[in-house]
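Running co-folding for shikimate-3-phosphate.
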Amino acid sequence: MSDRFIPQAVHGLHGSIDIPGDKSISHRSIMFSALADTPVEISNFLPGQDCLSTAACFQAMGVDVQFADESKTRLTVRGNGLHGLQEPPHILDAGNSGTTLRLMLGLMAAQPFLTTFTGDASLHQRPMGRVVQPLSRMGATIYGREGNTKLPLTVVPARGGLHGITYESPVASAQVKSALLLAGMYADGPTTVVEPAISRDHTERMLAAFGVETQREGKAVTINPVEKFTAPASIAVPGDISSAAYWLVAGSIIPGSELLLRNVGLNPTRTGIIDVLQAMGANLTLENERESGGEPAADIRVRATQLHGTTISHEMMPRLIDELPVIAVAALFAEGETQVLGAHELRVKESDRLQGLQDAFSLAVPGAMQVAGDDFTIGGGRQFAAGVGLPSRLDHRMAMSFAILGAAAHGLTIQDADCVDISYPAFYPTLERLLK
Ligand code: S3P
């Protein structure tokens, strides 16, 4: 892992950017295609390490995954049907990816063979009880560290099969919901997940594309046992709004900037960043609005403008949780204060992002951030320190957020900068191009 210096963008950022494929949808495109019995061609797949971890796990279970070329953005997946996964000959490695692990725990709970999962140091720290506990209620048998809540985890075939349940999840989490929906496909009756707030619905949308309808009633979603998948011939993955987020903020806060972000997925369960930036006074224009792979998408033009502070409520969290680090950077450049309420989930991501922001901002912008429990306040308009090095904590979203901070302030060094490969391998080359 190497450090990387990000220079100040003295003339603003200009140009257009093709936004790479959505990470959540890329994972699901492999998982669902792997359960089909006809080939699926996937385009604009995200070639990030997380999605490649998912691809490798399914290859180990006998699924044919063929990438069209070196870029790994186009591939064909040939599965063996809903009951066609084979026992993997080795431990499955989810790498840094919570989505790979949590969704696959649900799927593996229904298989007639044993699977063991490992992952990197970060994933070993992350809470898996939130999926293991409800899956166990469905009849799954899962063993792991710390009371079966941490990696490594072993999923044993469920003796009496899986049973449909109604589960009231204490967290709004698409990973929990999706794990239960995947297990529910193989259960003996309907499975219902009720969430405190609606999490991203890519699983429900992709199930529909494979001919499986889920039923939504308010904050509850239900799946019935599934007999067969009717796979689409192709899936076009829309661009990832979580990756576009860095440019939405950079284009807003770096004076003189104008950027065109092409092909941004605009699923309403993901667009919290747009609502927040607009509430802060950002100049965003949607162009060319359309559908891509069962998801709304558009191009977004962003022009620099003076932002002002806002309040982001607890209810907003599921729609922007992954974007909060870069929203925090935007808040540093806004007039007045930005308040974020109830951001507990930030603490259990690839790193403790709340602590990571606090530590980094205390170096780069002393006095700007105040934390009280899971709430925090950021005051804009402070003095930026020059020549600081900020720890990424090997967390891709922290590294990219700090890169935008560096380009907007006086430049800075990001420590362990390569971790951006998890979700955005082209991030630094893109930033360098826009800086010219
Ligand atoms: C994801 C769900 C979210 C998100 C993660 C991807 C998904 O996590 O933060 O980056 O693809 O389902 P939670 O389900 O833990 O909220």
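Result summary
The pocket of shikimate-3-phosphate is lined by residues 24, 99, 173-175, 178, 199-200, 321-322 (CB under 6 Å).
DSSP finds 14 helices and 23 strands in the chain.
Job closed.
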